[in-house]
Amino acid sequence: MNSNRTLATPRRMVGDYDQSGEHMFTSLAEDVIAFAGAEVEFERVAVTGDQVAAYHLPTAPPKTTDRRSFTGTATTQAEALPPDILAAIVRGAVEAHRDPAAHREVLAREQVQRRAIRELLARTSHPEDVLRSETASERDPVLGRIR
């Protein structure tokens, strides 16, 4: 790829550990990079060969009729991971790339916005009428309230 742009946030994927899952992962990565016109990092968070072994997931032999490349010797479906384990894996992958300071800033800004909305609603006997009567240009772009 000859792009000078890079999309900083990795794209995470959950898929079957088999020929189809492997092909979907590489094809998706190639397509997104081609359409985005930028370098894009992809991360397969589940199912991996290590997870198959660690969680003793059920396996089946690879399909002999599927000629696509696959590095494993056995296949596993993504739904073989228990939902709580899959959620923990995905949460961990997301949190590993999250900026804690930026997250705290967003939560603080959200708290201020919620307080402003509650105050506006408390001063208004029919809040739905206020929201309907305003035009988009009269509204604060962040809080949606009249300036």
Strands, count: 2
Structural classification:
alpha+beta
Span between termini: 47 Å
- How large a portion of the residues is in β-strands, by DSSP E? 5-15%
The oligomeric state of the chains shown is single chain
Question: Which parts are unreliable, with pLDDT below 50 for 5 consecutive residues or more?
Answer: none
**Helix content class:** 40-55%
Number of domains: 2
Structure description:
Helix 1 links the parallel strand 1 (6-14) and strand 2. 46% of the residues lie in helices and 12% in strands. It has a two-stranded parallel ribbon. It is elongated. It is α+β, with helices and mostly antiparallel strands and 147 residues long. The protein has 2 domains: 6-98, no CATH class; 101-138, no CATH class.
Q: What's this, in brief?
A:
With 147 residues, the protein is α+β, with helices and mostly antiparallel strands. Helices cover 46% and strands 12% of the residues.
Keywords, separated by commas or semicolons:
147 residues, alpha+beta, 2 domains, two-stranded parallel ribbon, 5 helices, 2 strands
